[in-house]
Every structure is written in structure tokens, then in C-alpha cells.
Design a protein that fits this description.
By secondary structure, this protein is α/β, with parallel strands linked by helices. Helices cover 43% and strands 17% of the residues. The chain is elongated and about 65 Å long.
């Protein structure tokens, strides 16, 4: 089967095709069809179902190009994966603007997550790796900071050992806990340049610390994110949640299928679902493998290691 798609102008084609036609090459490899492009004409050839799927994907990518004027390999991969799985990727939704850059949810589940953060003071987000739990929470926190809604961001993680013993790592206490906090820095660097992150940290506008360091504090006028909360014990979860002060917003994220606590030690994130489920102002959001927006292989890996939805 053959199909031809004609683009409206050469500029649209340049963005859609990608540098050295890398977007088209990714689509060709994923669907196993022949794709040729010249000027503003795309020709598709192959098995009927795959050609129709390629046409659907290209139309979604064209819509993204028309709306935003840019297209990256990550977006192409996400649209291919979503179309193959029969999932609707959202090219729009509630936008979070950081320094003029739009950070937006890419799935229906992610859109509900962002809306929950905007509309509640305490949000629990539970889901597998790659669903954007931490990234979107950090994006909303930075947006609130930029617009003056809150004056401080606090990012915390439990320093639970899942391999090497903490005491065996070289260096002082800061060097020992830094590996546990690295993913939080990575989330910040995905959205902001390193210089700005360093400036915020040095000025105590952004604080990144192990969960144990939060005992005894009351957190006012702050956006607090607790990451990897499945590794909190029940007492640790209670201690953290009771730090909530005036004009504070809290987001708790975790994956209850990856608990690294000692055998027999119940997870505070699992416990809290039944304990706080009926309290007004607290929202629980559950993301699934359908919301994974990392490399398309991550979704397959999650499926291989866990039960089917």
C-alpha cells in the first residue's frame, strides 16, 4: 500500500523531518515501512495497517509542529509509542511555564496529576518509573516560585540503602547522602540551567535534603516534594506530613512496587492510602504504565516486571 502526505510549506517539513531526517528514520524503524521525503512531500509504502498507523502518527506530529513550532526526538518517540499502544498523548493540557518554557503533561493521567497539584494542598502520586511523577512536581513547584505564590522549594528523599551500605561510601555525611539526592538535582537540571539551580541552592531558595533532616521543622510558605516515598516507614511518613505549615503545598511521590525497606517493615506510602483517603483537600493520583513517557522500552520493561493493569 502507498500513501502520500503533502505538507503546507518547506519550513514545516524541516521541523517535522528533523536533522538529517532523524524523525522519519525513527518512524521507519518503528513501523517497518518505507518512507521517502522530498521537499514537502512524504511517501509511505508498506503493509496497509502500518502505513495507516504511520499516517496517523505523522498527522499528530504535524499538529505539534503547527502548535509549538518545534519537535524533538523525545516527542516523536512518545507519539509513536502512544499510537502503537492505543493511548492518546496530549499535545496540550494545563501548561506550567518555567522561564518562558512550557512544561506540559503528555498523557491524560499526567494532566490529572498537574490539576490535582494545582487544586490541593497535599497530593500523593503513585506510579511506576518514567511516568513523570517527580519531574512534573518540580515543574509546578518552580512555576509557583517564579510567580511568587511560595518563597521556597524543599525536595526530600529517604536515604534507604538498596545495595551498597551507606557507611561504606567514601567522604563525609554530605558525600554519603548525595547519591540518594542526585535524581532530585537531575529533575531541576532538566528544567533550569545549572547556574540558576546552584544560585537557588546557595541562597536557600531551593533546599535538597534527606528526609531524616526534616524532623522538628515546621515548613511555612513552601512547596515540599517527598520523592521515593515508598521507602518511608509509617512513623517517618507521619513525621513528614506533620511538618506541613501555613501556606505550604506538599507532593508525595513513589512507586509501591519498588519498596527497599527491610523485610517486614511496612511502607508508609502503602499505609497512607487507606489512612488519609477520605480527607478533604488531600488527593491521590495513580499513574500507570500508560503514562510512561521515557524511552519506549521503559514501558516494556515495566510490563515485564509487574502485573498487567
Amino acid at each position: 500500500m502507498q500513501k502520500t502526505i503533502e505538507l503546507k510549506d518547506p519550513e514545516q517539513a524541516v521541523v517535522l523531518f528533523g536533522s538529517h531526517d532523524k524523525h522519519l528514520r525513527l518512524l521507519r524503524h518503528a513501523l517497518g515501512i518505507h518512507i521517502t521525503a522530498r521537499n514537502s512531500i512524504i511517501k509511505l509504502e508498506g503493509e496497509e495497517g502500518q502505513v495507516n498507523k504511520a499516517e496517523e502518527i505523522l498527522q499528530k506530529l504535524i499538529n505539534i509542529v503547527d502548535k509549538y513550532g518545534v519537535l524533538g526526538i523525545k516527542e516523536v518517540d512518545e507519539v509513536i509509542t502512544a499510537t502503537e499502544k492505543g493511548i492518546e498523548v496530549l499535545p496540550e493540557g494545563p501548561e506550567v511555564i518555567i522561564k518562558g518554557v512550557s512544561v506540559r503533561p503528555r498523557t491524560e493521567g499526567q494532566a490529572k496529576y498537574v490539576e490535582a497539584i494545582l487544586n490541593n494542598d497535599l497530593v500523593f502520586c503513585i506510579g511506576p518509573a518514567g511516568t513523570g511523577k517527580t519531574y512534573l512536581a518540580v515543574a509546578v513547584a518552580l512555576s509557583a516560585l517564579r510567580t511568587g505564590q511560595l518563597r521556597k522549594i524543599i525536595l526530600a528523599r529517604p536515604a534507604v540503602e538498596a545495595g551498597e551500605k551507606l557507611g561504606f561510601l567514601p567522604g563525609d555525611i554530605e558525600a554519603k547522602v548525595n547519591p540518594y539526592l542526585r535524581p532530585l538535582y537531575d529533575a531541576l537540571h532538566d528544567i533550569m540551567d545549572a547556574t540558576q539551580v546552584r544560585k537557588y541552592v546557595e541562597n536557600d531558595i531551593i533546599e535538597i535534603l534527606p528526609l531524616a533532616f526534616m524532623r522538628g521543622r515546621t515548613l511555612n510558605d513552601a512547596f515540599i516534594i517527598l520523592d521515593e516515598a515508598q521507602n518511608c516507614t509509617i512513623p517517618q511518613m507521619k513525621t513528614f506530613l506533620t511538618r506541613l505549615g501555613v501556606k505550604a503545598k506538599v507532593v508525595v511521590t513513589g512507586d509501591i512496587t519498588q519498596v527497599d525497606l527491610l523485610p517486614g517493615e511496612p511502607s508508609g506510602l502503602i499505609d497512607v492510602q487507606s489512612r488519609l483517603k477520605n480527607i478533604n483537600g488531600i488527593a491521590f493520583v495513580y499513574l500507570t504504565k500508560k503514562d510512561i513517557v521515557r524511552h519506549r522500552l521503559v514501558q516494556e520493561i515495566v510490563e515485564a516486571y509487574g502485573p498487567k493493569d
